[in-house]
Amino acid sequence: MTDYHLPPCPQSELTPITTTLSDFRSIRKKQFLLVDKTACINTLLRESKVFLSRPHCFGKSLLLSTIKELFTNGTKNFEGLAIRDLWDRPCCPVVSLSLFGLSSPASFEHELCARLRDAFAQAGFADALKIQTSSFVDLVPELNFLHRNSDIVLLIDDVDFPLSANLNNRNTFEHNKDVIRKFYAWLRDLQNIEFLMITGVGRYHDSSLFMPQDIKDISLDPRFASLLGYTQEEVESYFASHISAVAALRKCEEGELLELLKRQYGGYCFDYDAQTSVYCPISINSFFQQVVDFPEREPVFGSYWQESSNTASVLRALLNRKRPNFALVEATQGSGVVISQSELNNAYASDDLNAILTQTGYFTIKQVEHDSRNSTVRRYSCSFPNKEIDLAFGMTFFFYVTNCGPFGSGCR
Asked: Is the pLDDT of residue 7 over 60?
């Protein structure tokens, strides 16, 4: 009997890349490629209470995980990273919470209370599990009592999910917003806070998080424009070996490949001065992961952002509700749509489709439009950041206007 042997699998010597993990400690343990953002994180942690908005799959969860690791274990897992020689703060309890998946009005407040109890217990306040209430108003004084003698770090991810998941259901939206307002009021008044960070996709300025202004919105702050996403320099530096490998497979110059990558995945701007642009991390990671997994196969330029973040369903809901026409696509592919900073900050309150599409990542800031009549009004020209988003938006919009595919059973 002849023994059967599997053919050898080509082994790549390139640094492995993950597109699924967002836990800092796991990424370091498994030695996945990590773009070092810790110098910028060190600047961020000089603030007290902040909110940061970014589209899906830009690394918000990894950012919070990195901050949690710093305050929990110091810099022992930060060998080779910039913050190793900068960090001098003591460890303290970290309460880490995500609101992802909380959307049902019937269970929202109950589930929020349960997650808060669990988060405090995991941070070391074991007695939080003994609190028996599904009322947020009743829970708050109990939690405040537990950490009365301890400074804490509070990290909240996907804070907008209970609202964003119900944009087309006004009653549920308003119900959840009432609960969110109580939650935000508690956050604003919290004592013994070493650091508070809240992240999400949408900025709901009318939901009281930013009133009064003791939680700073840093979403368009130039200092943090490259905190999430990869700059051109970071792509060329951290992925240098991967770039060389792909260029060899494509039989092209590295400069030509870099131009292709920029047109396909770059162009996002989260800077009110419109000076800094970044690449989408999930797209770059997914593209180069192919040459790690299949070193003899030429990578494909795929639509990785929309596939990874399931943003198509959000876009379809927005289009169905706002009913735009082809003028929107024509304007965006031309000179762009013009949005004021106020409209962008209050996109969901004003229900402005262009501003919402910019917050969710389909549009991005291209340049500042100066108003000669009023120099205090900052306006932006916004359009698709790159070809990946242009194609993703175009296909979804086509289904919308023709009533084909995901929008209907056939074409009209």
From this structure: no
